[in-house]
Amino acid sequence: MATLALLPAGCLEGSGEVVEELGEGDAPLVTSAPLIGVASGRCLDVSGRSTSPGARLQIYDCNGGDNQGFNFTAAGELQVYGGTLCVEAPATAGSRVVTASCNGQARQKWTMNTDGTIVNQQSRLCMDVEGRRTASGSPVVVWSCNGQTNQKWSMPASADTQPPTPPSGLRTSNVTCTSATLSWSASTDDVGVAGYDIYHDGQHMTSVSGSTLSTSITLVPGAQWGLYVNARDAAGNVSQASATLTLSVPHCEADTQPPTAPSGLTGSASGTSVTLRWNASTDNIAVTAYDVYRNGAKVGTASGTASSPPATTFADSGLSAATAYTYHVIARDAQSNASPASGSISVTTGAACSTAICEVVQVATDNDVPWGLAPLPDGTIVYSRRDADDIIHLNPSTGAKTTLGTVPNVSGTDGEGGLMGLAIAPTFATDGWLYIMHTSPSDNRIVRIKIVSNRLDTSTHQVLVSGLPRNKYHNGGRLRFGPDGKLYASTGDAQNANLAQDTSSLAGKILRIEADGRVPSDNPFANYVWSYGHRNPQGLAFDSEGRLWEQEFGNSRMDETNLIQRGGNYGWPNCEGTVSNGGSGCSTPGYIAPKLTYSTAEGSCSGIAIVDDVFYAACQRGARLYRAVISGTSLTNVQQFFNGTYGRLRTVEPAIDGNLWLTTTNTGDKDSVPNNSNERIFRVILGG
What kind of architecture, by CATH, is found in domain 357-686? Predict the structure, then answer.
């Protein structure tokens, strides 16, 4: 079926925000084509071949008539008779779909999703053949979206496979603490630009029509954002992103008054962990964070916002046994005014570890982003440096690092692409195969290269899977071998949300691959796709029962942990975690609900690991490690560790001795500049 979504499901363009428009004729229409009902095999048809406004639509035997030729415009209109009339519907379920003179109103605008549904942008109701009838002449109405085949339509595949050029010339004006006008220069396309999608740092903000080159955006006071724009055409092809425009959002009012000092600091030890508590500070505007200091060095942060105060407790884990530590706490407001220090206390840890995290040992640092990490059978590890394009062999016992070599044809994306996931073959001890996922200049791909004599033998380089859509963000990138000997890979939606629901596309999916790159014969869709409906999955891990767990970035509201089923649909873009975005949202039949959700401010988790059926997730924006016990199909007893202690966490991996490896991703992780980071690799010793 055609991929003709003009805007992500649930997003409406316009709303009076257009500031600048292209001249007439700059966005050509898509060639007229029939819309064929999936249930009936009959064509959408203007009854009686009437060219007068108000004619009702029906299904009818396909005959190639001009009353069966439809096209979507760049503005989202569904037109017939070459643009003479538009298709519209009242906002009441059960109302007939009719023709009308084109007037640009929302009731005449439609979105065709990759699952074949056509959704009215005013009512959010689906175009539906009444009563699930299939006979010629059956009326067409709008009805609540329910996923039935009488609400699904196909259109002959578009010959347009060329995406627009990236937008350029981003600039802001009218900047305040809560809003700005973002403008850009037009993309070009062989058919026509249908829309632009506006993002900051991988999060979708709004979408506008293809004739719009400027729009108002909502800002967060004091935020540091990287803005960029993607263009899309009516066939669903999405451009690569524009260059990033950095925006420092001003605060709404100057604030030079610091908070009061925290008071009443107390602490208690449990084994090698210390729990601190204190009384809240006050501020003329709001306290937004508390920084915790151990022996004079900052070791953690309790973060909040002006409307959601930060916690007044902190757990410091992985300390040495029978050791005295001195603590104090400082409060901060949103403009980084710092309070005087609280009073200091001394806490002595227990004689032995009795908690979940016993010790954290720094084993290495790196000036690039350690993205993928794989333990080797001898207890050493290899890791990828995302922007430097090379693989490092690390001996944790000595700290010695050896560069194994550079991976061929790696390209950054000026965002989060580059050299990403690693996995070693189950047969590594005999054949030395290292599996790698990376971005190339044209796609994302999965390759394998043998490690021979502590070097990458590039003569063995094999491309196993190519053509995975890429973009500035949403590239996925994690690899994991399963107990079935198959390679599993996570792929992002490449900032084209509709691809996530298209099982013929490899974007927004969990893939399952034979070790030599073949498609396993028992995959559900006769291709690499194992599950779908994912936005930007990055964490993969198997439990003791051989079940696959997955960690996924949401857009702006909710991240999620999923238990993956063969052929399962996890709902993106209509469902983000448990939040409905469009269509029938998370209540859509067949969507699989997550096992755990997190706010994006407390999550943005990338890597996951499972050790003895205990689940761990390393989080970036949340700057913490989650721990949860797997009980049946649930995640229970959820705990948080290292809340701000080490900053943003990227990767967590099981060590062969039953402990964990953990890496940071604090600087340089939103660009493709090599060696501009300051990261650490830790060994985490686990307890009971």
Answer: 6 Propeller (2.120)
